Amino acid sequence: MNISSAHQKIIDDLKQQYPDDILEVTENRGDVLVRVSVDAIHNICQRLYDEYRFIYLVDIFGTDRFTSEDRFEVIYNIVSLRDQLRLFIKVRCEEEDPHVQTVTDIWKAANWQERQTYDMFGVIFDGHPDLRRVFLPEDFEYYPLRKEFPLLGVPGSIELPSTTPDTED
Amino acid sequence: MGLESALGEGFLTTRVDSLVNWARSNAVWPMPMGLACCAIEMMAFAGPKYDVSRFGSEVFRFSPRQSDLMIVAGWCTYKMSHAIRRIWDQMPDPKWCVAMGACASTGGMHRCYGVVQGVDNFLPVDAYISGCPPRPDAVINALMKIQDKIKTEHSVLLDT
């Protein structure tokens, strides 16, 4: 692996602070990805924010790995503007009742990102102030980016407008 | 012909139907429903180079109350479909609709759960334009098709 010394220093510190929660460290074309246990995500993010000034949350997104265990993955893309570093944090959660603790109290920008991840994958962010759908209607029953969701959607699941004009006058 | 000779120079006689249809067909004011890249071609259609004012349609009306022709230009999501239908319902009769481009006609390349697969699912479309996006000439062609349709409409007397 080709991890820069600045990244290695952060990872060593995290491993020392949370020895049981750093599950996997990988590197892909200069990007460092750290998989942490789902219970420790909030504490680790808080520490990265406080100690290493990862003040810029670029993105939060989900993936559907379509595996029987730990099916959904939530990935946090964070940047330290002071040290010019980018870090990816990953957590995995179960298919049945996926729960991840929110990071909206650390980064305000996480609000809509977590809502969108909920909208598309159904991952529930505990402690989120306003966990509603972003794009799809409130009464929509499915999560469209899950692998089992059909490409063209479920017929009739989203309402089309009535083709008879409103006649109340 | 007897009446015209009695009236002399400067008069002609016709039917009210023909007159009304002629007037309507040469003043089709479009309601631009620009949703995506097709809207850029729709602007070119109204601009000086393609000059749709030759056909009396240069007045883009952004109020549905003043327009006769809705040009749905671009892909339409389920969320947007309600707004489009509402604007369509606010347009006064008689009114016509053009589905411009592959997306508005069939969903086009947006073959997914969020995009309505053709605006004819909720609008009575009179003319479809192929292309992605269509050239402004094609939009003019659709407008001329609409004009032909207006000119051959049934009697206005039957409306009452």
Question: Which key phrases capture this entry?
Answer:
heterodimer, A: 169 residues, alpha/beta, Beta Polymerase, domain 2, 5-stranded mixed β-sheet, two-stranded parallel ribbon, 7 strands, 22% helix, B: 160 residues, Rossmann fold, 4-stranded parallel β-sheet, 4 strands, 38% helix, elongated
In short:
Chain A is of the alpha/beta class and 169 residues long.
Topology:
The complex is a heterodimer of chains A (169) and B (160).
Chain A: H1 5-17, E1 22-28, E2 31-36, H2 41-52, E3 56-64, E4 72-80, E5 85-93, E6 99-101, H3 110-121, E7 124-126
Chain B: H1 2-7, H2 16-25, E1 30-34, H3 38-46, E2 69-73, H4 78-90, E3 96-100, H5 101-106, E4 127-129, H6 136-151
Parallel strand pairs in B: 1-2, 2-3, 3-4
Helix pairs in contact in B: 2-6, 3-6
Largest sheet of chain B: 4 strands, parallel
Class based on secondary structure composition and strand pairing of chain B? alpha/beta
- Which two protein chains have the largest interface (Cβ within 8 Å of the partner's Cβ), and how many residues from each? A-B, 18 and 17 residues
Strand content of chain B: 5-15%
Largest sheet of chain A: 5 strands, mixed
- Per DSSP, the total helix count of chain A is 3
Unreliable stretches of chain B (pLDDT < 50, length at least 5) are none
Order of strands side by side in the largest beta sheet of chain A?
1-2-5-4-3
What characteristic shape of chain B results from the CA principal axes? Answer: elongated
Number of structural domains of chain A: 1
Mean pLDDT of chain B: 87
The radius of gyration over CA of chain B amounts to: 18 Å
Going by helix content, strand content and strand pairing, the class of chain A is alpha/beta
- Helical fraction of chain B: 25-40%
Tell me the CATH topology of chain A.
Answer: Beta Polymerase, domain 2
Topology of chain B as a string of helices (H) and strands (E): HHEHEHEHEH
Write down the Rg of chain A: 19 Å
Number of domains of chain B: 1
